[in-house]
C-alpha cells in the first residue's frame, strides 16, 4: 500500500509543491511549501488518532495533507479542485487503491472554504489541520511597513495549536497573539469563513469547535 513516506519522497510531488509555492511567493501569499504541508499532516493525524480512527485512515489523511495545495501550481483560484485532479493522476500512477484515491481526492477537493465541505472524516481532519496553521513563520514579507492584513494577522500569531479535550467532545484552536502587529478583529475579518468551515468539520467528527485567543474563548 502507498504510504505517506512514499508520497513525501516522490521527486515529482516535491517538484510540484515547490513550484506551486514559488507561484504563491510571486503573488505575495504566505508560505505554502513543505513546512506547511508537514504541519497539516501532523495535525490531521493527531485529530484522527485521538478520535480512534484506524491507522490506515490516519495514513490517508497525511497523504491528503501532503498533496492538498499542489493545485496552486495551476492557479490560486479553484486550487482545491485542480489539486484534486492532479492528485488523482499522481496517485493512480503510483498504483494507489481506487477506494483510497477516492478518499484522498475528495478531501483535497473539499478543503477550501470557498467551495469545500467536510464530506468525510479525512476531509474534516484536513480542513481543521489546514485552517489552524496560522503562524509568524509563514510570513515571507520582510518589510513590516508594507504588510497587508494577511501578513499582519499571521505575523501577530506567536503560537497556534489544536487540542482535543479528554472527553473527546471538543476541539480547540488556541492562539497566542501579539496585538501590536494585528488585532483580534483583523483575525476575524479574514478568517471568519475558515472558522465557520472548521465548525462544520468538527461537527462531522462529532466535536464542537472552539477558538481561544490569548486565553479568551471567542467562538
Write the layout of secondary structure elements.
Blueprint: H1 4-8, H2 11-27, H3 34-50, H4 55-67, H5 79-93, H6 98-109, H7 121-131, H8 149-156, E1 157-164, E2 170-177, H9 184-204, E3 208-213, E4 216-217
Parallel strand pairs: 2-3
Antiparallel strand pairs: 1-2, 3-4
Helix pairs in contact: 3-4, 3-7, 4-6, 4-7, 5-6, 6-7, 7-9, 8-9
- Taken together, the total number of domains comes to 1
What is the CATH homology-level superfamily? Hypothetical protein af1432
Low-confidence stretches: none
Shape: globular
Describe, in plain words, how this protein is organized in 3D:
With 219 residues, this protein is of the alpha+beta class. The protein has a single domain (4-217), classed as Orthogonal Bundle (Hypothetical protein af1432), CATH 1.10.3210.10. Helix content is 54%, strand content 11%. It has 9 helices and 4 strands, in the order ααααααααββαββ. It has a 4-stranded mixed beta sheet with strand order 1-2-3-4. α3 (34-50) runs antiparallel to α4 (55-67).
